[in-house]
Amino acid sequence: MSKWTDKLPEAARDFIGDRRVDEVECIIGDIAGVARGKAMPAAKFATQKSYFLPNSIFLQTITGEWADNPFDAFTEPDMILEPDFTTATAAPWTADVTLQVIHDAKDQNGVLIPYAPRNVLRRIVDLYAEQGWQAVVAPEMEFFLTARNIDPNMPVMPPMGRSGRRAAGKQAYSMSAVDEYGKVIDDIYDFAEAQGLEIDGILQEGGAGQIELNLAHGDPVRLADDVFFFKRLIREAALRHDCFATFMAKPIAGEPGSAMHIHTSVVDSKSGKNIFAGPKGAETEAFLHFIGGLQNHLGAGIALLAPYVNSYRRYVPDFAAPINLEWGRDNRTTGLRVPISTAAGRRVENRLPGMDCNPYLGIAATLACGYLGLMEKRNPRPEFIGSAYIDSDEIPVNMGDALDLLDEDAALKAVLGDGFCKVYDSVKRNEYKEFLQVISPWEREHLLLNV
User: What region holds the GS catalytic domain (predicted)?
Assistant: First the structure.
C-alpha cells in the first residue's frame, strides 16, 4: 500500500483488500448538507496534499441559485480542501473501487472557514472543551421510502411492497411492515458495514414507508459525519430497488413528518463522568441549566433545525411532532424529553430538528443552546406534566419568522459565529423569496375562480 492508504481507517482498508483503488471523491457538506466536491483518479489523489473549490459553494441555495455575498464582492476565490483521512470510507454502490473522504475547508491562509457547517460544529465542540467538557450525542434518523416521483407536480406516494400493495401508515414498530421493503434494508446494512458505520437499530415508524434508523452515541463531529454519509447511502440503496428515499420533513400530506431527534449528554473531560448526574445519581444543576439553555435559545435555533418552508408543516399537534419548548421526563409530546436511563446515561432528547436539517448544523444548534444554558445558569420552567400538544408562540410558524428570531438572539449568534450566521441568513432568505414566487395548486383551486 502507498502512504496515503496507510492513513485510512480499518473499514476502508478492509473494503479495498488487495484491490487497486480506482477513484477518490473529495467532498464537503454545503449549507444544505449536500455533498459537493470533485472526484479524481486515486493515482492523482495520492500525489496531492490539498485541493481547491470556490468558496461560493456555501452561498448556493437548495435550488442551485446564488445568495448574496454578505462580506464583499462576488469574486469566488478558491478555498483549500485538506483531506481528513479519519473520515475515509467506501462508496460501495459504485462499479469500481471508490473511496469518499470528507475534507476540511480552509482559506488561503490556512484558517478554517467559519461558515463551513462542519467547522461551525467543531467551533461549538471546542467551546465545550475550553470548559473541560465533552459533548456526547446520539442522533435518530427518520426517513420515507417512496415510489419514484418523476413529476414534482404529482403528490408523493408510498412505495410498493413485496406483497404488491403500497406501504401502509399507522404501523409503527410493525416487523411485517419493515419486511415489505426488506431488500432495501438489507442493502442499507450492507453499505453501512462496508463503510464502517454503526447502526444501533432500524424500525418501522408511523408513516407509510417511514423508517427510523438509530445511531450509537459518540463524538458530535463523527456522528454528524455518519449522518452525512448515511443520507447518501440510504438514497443509493433505495434507487437499487426502484424507489426513492427522502429526508423531507413532511413529504406526504396526512402522514407524520420525519425528525432527527438528538440525544445529548455532557461529560467531564478528565473524569469521564456525566455532569448531569451528581452523588447517588441525583440530577444536577448543570442538567437543569442545559435544559434552560434549550428553552431560552432554541426558538432562535429553529432556523437551523427547520431550514425549509416544508419544515414547518411538521410542527402540527397529534402527529408525533413537538409544537413547543416544554420539557418532561419520558414525555414524547414535549419538545425536550428526558428519556428513562441510568444516572450515567442521563441525557436530553431534542425532538425539534427535522430530518431535512444539515446534521452538522442541527447538532451545532442543539449544543450551542445547551452551552449557553450552562454558561448563563438559567433554570428551565417547571417540568410539563401531561400532553404538551398545546398552543405556543415559542416556535416560529415559517422560515421568515425563524430567521428573524435568530437575528435577534445575539448570544446564540456569537456562539455559532457571526460570519456563519450572515451566510446562513443570506442563503435561507433567498430560498424563502424563491418559494414565495411559486403559485401552489391550493391557490389555483380555491382562489382562481372564487375571489
Answer: 117-451
Which residues are 26's β-sheet partners? 38, 101
DSSP string spanning 82-108? EE-GGG-EE-TTSSS-EEEEEEEEE-T
Helix axes 117-130, 220-239, angle to 10 degrees: 150
End-to-end CA distance of the chain: 72
Q: How many helices (H) and strands (E) does the chain have?
A: 13, 14
Q: How confident is the model at residue 411 (pLDDT cuts 50, 70, 90)?
A: very high
What's the pLDDT tens digit per position in 339-383? 999 999 999 999 999 999 999 999 999 999 999 999 999 999 999
Phi, psi of 99 (to 5 degrees): -115, 150
Please list, in sequence order, all residues whose beta carbon lies within 8 angstroms of the beta carbon of residue 14, skipping any fewer than 6 positions away. Answer: 196
CB 260 within 8 A of CB 357: yes
CB 5 within 8 A of CB 16: yes
pLDDT in tens, 379-410: 999 999 998 887 777 899 999 999 999 999 99
